[in-house]
Amino acid sequence: MIQYSKIAKVIEERIKNHIYPPFMKIPTQQQLADEFGTSRMTVKKAIDSLIYLGLLVSIRGSGTYVMSNPIANELDFSGKSYLGLSATMQGKGRNLSSKVIAFEHVFPDNLQQKRLLLNETDPVYRIIRLRCLDGEPYTLEYTHMPIGIIPGLNAEVLTHSIYSYIQNDLGLRIGSSYRVIRANIPDAYDRKYLECSDNDPVLEIEQVVYLDNGMPFEYSRSRHRYDKGGVSVNNQVTQMDKTFTWKKKDF
Amino acid sequence: MIQYSKIAKVIEERIKNHIYPPFMKIPTQQQLADEFGTSRMTVKKAIDSLIYLGLLVSIRGSGTYVMSNPIANELDFSGKSYLGLSATMQGKGRNLSSKVIAFEHVFPDNLQQKRLLLNETDPVYRIIRLRCLDGEPYTLEYTHMPIGIIPGLNAEVLTHSIYSYIQNDLGLRIGSSYRVIRANIPDAYDRKYLECSDNDPVLEIEQVVYLDNGMPFEYSRSRHRYDKGGVSVNNQVTQMDKTFTWKKKDF
DNA sequence: CAGTGGTCTAGACCACAAT
DNA sequence: TTGTGGTCTAGACCACTGA
């Protein structure tokens, strides 16, 4: 494993075990560099990754401190997650099952061509799955993926984890995603499969997911029951954002 | 301005002006280092910040490429934004107005004490504002802030931008935030102020915002009309996430 | 003032992609 | 094999905090 990742894991463990309790000032970068027998730059990279996760905060001239906890509850899933719903819920000890409602090979419409950078003659899978959490309807997913990029999808894979298949069987790596989160009115499918009443809102997540070479491989819309949790997002302001903010003295 | 930020701005301009068009391989880190008269590490930091923003993707052994565009539309606001709604909408050329519905000094309840790390005797502002976009109801904000951290708030500030006041008048800097995004059923206030019908869902954003020293200064719930856009989130998988994914061969 | 984190250098070695 | 990005070093200087 990469050196700064190893150091970050050790520090993360110390935070979780309260060896570094909330609000504690942790050792200086130089002290940690000495402890791990590495350079200060490498320690800083480890610390930066934990700042990104919201576990630490560094203050120049003062030190690095353990952050307090986020507001997310157990059912919310992270806006930073890419492992797919199966792995996310497995990590939380929940039982996720999938029922395939539609699975076919089609040609992409204009929107899908644009999102997935395809021609109208490039075939895609059209997949509709109902995901149930501990036996209760949780989310209805409408997924389109290019067959050329993700070959060999079948019903067996769909009832388990597409993301596991992509990463472990095809050996592809996921790089980034764009998501838009909205509230919406339930439609006939939501009422039928998510068992929404006419007034129950749905939480819709539209996303494009890219491989680590920048190629889009999934365009999907997921419609969630509103009472089954939300999406959590945590963000750190980068140095560039601070500089930008700094300049905005004019209004 | 910091050197890598300057370099990042130049590269960002080149992307926006299509000097580096979508999917183009940009010059190597070494070439850019020579061009800007700096070291490769500094160029890499600039590139990393643009990868974080979703503008570039680097592939080891191959090169760095301009990413294709996100799905966000103009009315969605970014999950990465901290400048407050006023600055966000000003940046988009929209006209935002604020109507103060409630403004008082109160003592925090249990939840607010926990989120803002306060005692029950530490006074907070309780603020309810209706934000209108181009004259139409947009979002209803319920905000609590510790008076001790943000002194001197008044009606004048509330009708303009609290964030501008915090940064420009108080000289404080915003560091990070945690958000949870949900769909919900409209309540009486939503129907009255957002002019929701009984069936219109609302998009609720609960957030805690921290100063750059890690101190929480805002706890708020914002309820948006569902037809006025959503929240966009873009994410890059970090090297650590990749390592984690890599190890998950077992399910 | 001393201590701390942020940035930067000028190299080096390695992993990986493309040929 | 060559070129590229990822990581790492051992120092340096600066900006900022806090005594």
Automatic annotation (TrEMBL), chains A, B:
InterPro entries: Bact_HTH_transcr_reg (IPR050679), Chorismate_lyase_/UTRA_dom_sf (IPR028978), Tscrpt_reg_HTH_GntR (IPR000524), UTRA (IPR011663), WH-like_DNA-bd_sf (IPR036388), WH_DNA-bd_sf (IPR036390)
Key word Phosphoprotein present: no
HTH gntR-type domain boundaries: 1-69
GO biological process: negative regulation of DNA-templated transcription
MF (Gene Ontology): DNA binding; DNA-binding transcription factor activity
Keywords, alphabetical: DNA-binding, Repressor, Transcription, Transcription regulation
Record's keyword annotation contains Repressor: yes
UniProt xrefs under CDD domains: WHTH_GntR
Matches recorded under Gene3D superfamilies: Chorismate lyase-like, Winged helix-like DNA-binding domain superfamily/Winged helix DNA-binding domain
Pfam families registered for this protein in UniProt: GntR (PF00392), UTRA (PF07702)
UniProt-recorded name of the protein: Transcriptional regulator, GntR family
Organism from which the protein derives: Ethanoligenens harbinense (strain DSM 18485 / JCM 12961 / CGMCC 1.5033 / YUAN-3)
